[in-house]
Amino acid sequence: MGKFxxxxxxxxxxxxxxxxxxxDWLADSITVKTPADFRELAIRTNNGDRNGFRDVVFILxxxxxxxxxxxxxxxxxxxxTRPFDGxxxxxxxxxxxxxxxxxxxxxxxxxxxxxxxRITDNIKxxxxxxxxxxxxxxxxxxxxxxxxxxxxxxxxxxxxxEEHRITEVDMIRALTNEEFREMGITIxxxxxxxxxxxxxxxxxxxxQTAQMQALKEPIxxxxxxxxxxxxxxxxxxxxxxxxxxxxxxxxxxxxxxEQLKEMGIEAMFDQIAKLGAKGVQRxxxxxxx
Length: 289
Prior knowledge:
The chain is α/β, with parallel strands linked by helices. It has 3 domains: 22-142; 145-209, Transcription Factor, Ets-1 (DNA polymerase, domain 1), CATH 1.10.150.50; 223-288, no CATH class. Helix content is 48%, strand content 14%. The strands form 3 sheets. A 4-stranded parallel beta sheet has the order 1-2-4-7. Helix 10 crosses helix 14 (269-288).
């Protein structure tokens, strides 16, 4: 009986290891979902895997929050001798947490690209870039509730919000007049706080739109993906997708209606699901040929 239990435990350990391995690090397009995925990317990049993941597209699909225990183990992605040479499509997701003053990326290579990445102002996106080309234009820095209150001359309310455990920008934006009143905030300061957070939200949206419009460095679509678009009746959008670096069907299907609208191709939204179903079959046949 004891031997059977040991064997069963070993099988479970192996099975868990297989289940946990959810990322195909040899793929051309890799989805990033958790802080652990970033950690694994750092280890592999710094070990020189796949030439710094040159031409590999990483797609961020969730907001990322680094816990305190993650900070102690964090190492920046890419070194001076082994830079990150892939592309990270941030999808305007927010990267935040306890990485005060630390770098998310250490060194970007000549082909390294960071697009539509949002970070809080306590995180530095990268340290250096080989032959830098002003990638800062492609970063939307997300303000914190502390920076918004301080800029508005209302920093005395920071301890009050912390006391009530209201420490997210969206939480403060959602507060009602009754909730402000319960916290003891006067009518005048309620208005000033509301206006400050509304102004920041408007500026951030304008900045995100500008970032989307300013994206350059068009790419050539994979022939199979291009064929899928043409056969699906979406050939007119090929040049726009090339301009914004949407290189494959997976990236296309990850875009929201709002993002498509900012790119001027909102009309594609309802057709993408059909394209995925029919196009994948056609693409598979084309690859076999």
